[in-house]
Amino acid sequence: MIVIGGGLAGLSAGVALAETGWRVRLFEQRPYLGGRATSYVLPDGEHVDNCQHVTLGCCTNLEDFYRRVGSENKIRFFDRLLFQDPQGRTGVMQAGFLPAPLHMTGSFLSFAPLSTVDKSAIGRALFDILRGQGHTPDLDEPGGISMLEWLRRRKQTPGAIERFWRVVLVSALDEELDRTDARFGVDVFWKGFLSNRSGYRMGVPSVPLAELYDGCKMEIERRGGEVNLRMPVRAIHSEGDALTSVEFDGQRRERADGYVFAIPHQALAELLPAAIKEREPRLAQLDQIKVSPITGVHLWFDREVMQEPFVTLLDTTTQWIFNKTQLYGQGNGAGGGNGQYLQLVISASYDLLQKPRQEIVDLCLAEVHQALPHSREAKLLKSTVIKEAAATFSPEPGVDKLRPIQHTAVKGLYLAGDWTATGWPATMEGAVRSGYLAAEALLKDSGTPRSFLQPDLPVETLVRWLG
Length: 467
Ligand SMILES: Cc1cc2nc3c(=O)[nH]c(=O)nc-3n(C[C@H](O)[C@H](O)[C@H](O)COP(=O)(O)OP(=O)(O)OC[C@H]3O[C@@H](n4cnc5c(N)ncnc54)[C@H](O)[C@@H]3O)c2cc1C
Fold this sequence. Notes:
The protein is α/β, with parallel strands linked by helices and 467 residues long. Helices cover 31% and strands 20% of the residues. It has a 7-stranded mixed beta sheet. A 5-stranded parallel beta sheet has the order 10-2-1-14-20, covered by helices on one side. The termini are far apart. Bound molecules: flavin-adenine dinucleotide. Residues 4-10, 27-30, 35-37, 50-51, 53-55, 232-233, 262-264, 267, 294, 296, 388, 391-392, 417-418, 426-431 line the site of flavin-adenine dinucleotide.
């Protein structure tokens, strides 16, 4: 069988199918694997991630995938999340000794950037999610409601919205609250912060992202398959109700018993012939799924300016600062010598898309100087800005109606990708879930059903009791 696309969706489908004995031939247009969650080497030899990627304890399928390909030890989990505001007040989110959903109570009560009024408003809204076990009745309103509307209905204060809900959700969902379906927002808090004490733990790769996928090629090849890089599919051919071949440069055609298309929805919309769109009308509306941007700013200093592994900034353009030198471990790639390499992340970065790169560096550097006093004396050796205009699909209200399932009405055609129907937003977890679901759909059609999808973290006893 053929997999097109070597991002997490294609890799997880390919590895799962190879494991069941299928001969997998994977075709990726780029010279490296990982898709949007990858890294590459700059001309000066520096390894940079396309953008810092993090996972959470609740991402059970991504964890399973890393285990299958031998990368689980390349992810370091942190229990302590640090927040800092421009006035220098800090807050920590960390589980204490109480069971879920009370595990964060201690750190939440002492969270200095939020006032008591903010906290009691947040507590009420969280209790609402808890009572509904991750669901509230207004999420079912026709067309969905925005997260901002959901918060307004629960009388959240401006401080609570800006310094709590927005901070967590814009990073997790890559969209502003007024353009986010509340279903996704509520789910983040349910799975990440309420239902299980481990859901919020943050996993950060300790190697450049591309190194996480070394085991995928080995796993597919070991079972008789192949991974072909620099091989873009240029056309799709079908006859009647079946997909018959895919075409590469030089009019080379390849045939298989099944094809998993694991490419971004915009790319698929361009490739699909009209005959397939007519047979499967959901595939004719892919261009209605909107996208949102993420900007990464990479700064190399001549000395150490930060001691924490990462920090979340409040009330600034910069949302996260990652201390890449520390996360990679001394002498492993970044920074070199006594220098330090920081990576800043700005999700839903619509305002930055048109700005010149130097202006973005100046803006972020001023914020770094304010947050990290040691950086004021340090020399900035070099910087780079990576703008991803189409980083993720936008989780706007009603978007789920546009997301097709992995099985299609066209024989041989299966879909994977974070944008397909997984119930999850555009994340590495969503991409792996889609890959597993595509593999399951193909195996079911071939009469050898098998299950790959992993269950969510269990809902803890007290949480169930409070619901
Ligand atoms: C800047 C940024 C930051 C992010 N941060 C996080 C984060 O912290 N945590 C998180 O969970 N998620 C994050 N995400 C989202 C995450 O990267 C994606 O959800 C996930 O990687 C999508 O995987 P995918 O396989 O569905 O798609 P992709 O990774 O886009 O893979 C599709 C692949 O198909 C290939 N392709 C396209 N067309 C063709 C063709 N014609 N022929 C052959 N190959 C083709 C592409 O080259 C690509 O390799 C971030 C995304 C970005 C862009």
